[in-house]
Amino acid sequence: MLMGAVIQAIEYPAAPGREELERLLSAVAAGDRDAFGALYRLTRGAVYAMALSVVKNAHDAQDVAQDAFVKVWESAGQYRAPGSPMGWLLTVTRNLARMRLRQSARQGELTEAEWDAIPADSPRVTPEDRLLLQTALAALDGGERQIVLLHAVSGLKHREIAALLDLPLSTALSKYHRALKKLRAQMEGDDPQ
C-alpha cells in the first residue's frame, strides 16, 4: 500500500495549468507582485528539483532557485506564448545551475541531508513515504533521477523533458521507465536490475 501511494505520486503529478502559468508570467512581466508570489508558490518545488538535479548540493540548489526567481522577475516579458511556461522557467533554472557548476567546478552525489531539503508539498506523501522515496531515488543514476524529479515535481510531459534536457524522446522515456522499474524493485525489497 505504501509503495503504491509513493509510485502513484511519481506517476501522476499534479502540475499547474499552462494557461494559469502563462497568465501569471504575463502579469509578472507587467510588475504584478501578487502574480509573482502565486507563480513562486506554484513552481518553487519544480525549480528547486531542477536546480538540485543539476548542482547536487542543497545549499547551491537553494541559491540557484532564488536566482532563477530573480531572473524570472526581471525577464518574464521574454517568455513568448505559445510555449511551455514551465519549460521556460526550468530552462532558466537549468542554465543558472549549469553556470553555478562551471563557476564552482564541483559535482557530486547527494547526501541524505541534501535529499531532506527537497520541499515536501504533496499532501499524499507522509514523512515515512518521503523517506522511502528519497532512499529509492538515491539508487537511481543522475539522469534517471533528473527525469523522474522533473516529471514528478514539475509535471512536465516526457516530450517537454526530452526537449529541456536535449535528449531524444525515446531516450527520455526509456530512462524514465527504467527508473520506475528500479524504484519499484527498491520499494518492494527486490534487487534492482
CATH topology: Rna Polymerase Sigma Factor, Chain: A
Let me know the CATH homologous superfamily: RNA polymerase sigma factor, region 2, helix turn helix motif
Number of helices: 10
Architecture per CATH nomenclature, i.e. the level-2 architecture: Orthogonal Bundle
Percent in strands:
under 5%
| Main sheet: strands, sense, barrel | none
In total, the number of strands is: 0
Query: Radius of gyration, Cα only, in angstroms?
Result: 16 Å
Q: What is the H/E string?
A: HHHHHHHHHH
Relative helix content: over 70%
The computed structural class is mainly alpha
Count of folded domains: 1
Shape: globular
Spans of at least 5 consecutive residues with low confidence:
5-13
Summarize this, please?
The protein is mostly helical and 193 residues long.
What do you see in this structure?
Helix content is 72%, strand content 0%. With 193 residues, the chain is mainly α. It has one domain: RNA polymerase sigma factor, region 2, helix turn helix motif (Rna Polymerase Sigma Factor, Chain: A), CATH 1.10.1740.10. The two termini are 23 Å apart. Residues 5-13 have low confidence and may be disordered.
